[in-house]
Write a structure and sequence with these properties.
about 55% strand, seven-stranded mixed sheet, about 120 residues, globular, four-stranded antiparallel sheet
């Protein structure tokens, strides 16, 4: 089992920045990929970014490329999502997720709210 705890959400004005954190515990050695997803009101959960432990590869949704950066701190078993130039359409609950060798996101955090105001 892997436990994930997100933090860092909040209210920010458009153009501002936030950094989300996802602390992993438990069987983290089995983690293959860490990802961030978001769900806006009335919409389905959508992929935001991912980080692959094996080769440090990163992937981003087109909507956040150039504005968001995913990174990790091995010593802390923590993955971060640095969000810059935030827009109102970035408003959502952000979830951290972990995938093992199956490459399926089996583990999810509780989510953290990000609200971007005009």
């Amino acid at each position: 089992q892997v436990q994930l705890v997100e933090s860092g959400g909040g209210l920010v004005q458009a153009g501002g920045s936030l950094r989300l954190s996802c602390a992993a515990s438990g069987r983290t050695f089995s983690t293959y990929t860490m990802g961030w997803f978001r769900q806006a009101p009335g919409k389905e959960r959508a992929f935001v970014a991912s980080f692959r432990w094996s080769d440090s590869s990163t992937y981003y949704a087109d909507s956040v490329k150039g504005r968001f950066t995913i990174s990790r701190d091995n010593a802390k078993n923590t993955v971060y999502l640095q969000m810059n130039s935030l827009k109102p359409e970035d408003t959502a609950v952000y979830y951290c997720a972990a995938a093992g060798s199956s490459k399926i996101y089996d583990y999810w955090g509780q989510g953290t709210q990000v609200t971007v105001s005009l």
